[in-house]
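User: Second chain of the day. Same drill as before.
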Amino acid sequence: MSRRVAVCTLDSLPEGSFRVVAVDGHEILLARLNNDIYAVDAVCTHESGPLGEGYLEGDAIVCPIHFTMFSLRTGQILEGPATRPLRTYPVHIEADTVFVTLPSA
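Assistant: Same format as last time:
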């Protein structure tokens, strides 16, 4: 059974920014673009690069190591050497709190 976890407030994630949050020892990258919030794994699928140290390009996150570009909307690889997409997570907002839905263990 999936579970919804509060990860941050809207105020802590300004438009055009991203940050990494830890949930049960797992790092998730949150990004706010055009008033939408996206959640993906925070580790590159190529060589475990820290996406929190990468940069945004449009609606994508770019790994700082080998520059794989992942769609924040779908997790799909847009360019670069990675061969597996990022896991994405459903995001819900209630009042000023951002929640991420995690899959069952």
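The chain has a mean pLDDT of 96.

User: Great, on to the next one.
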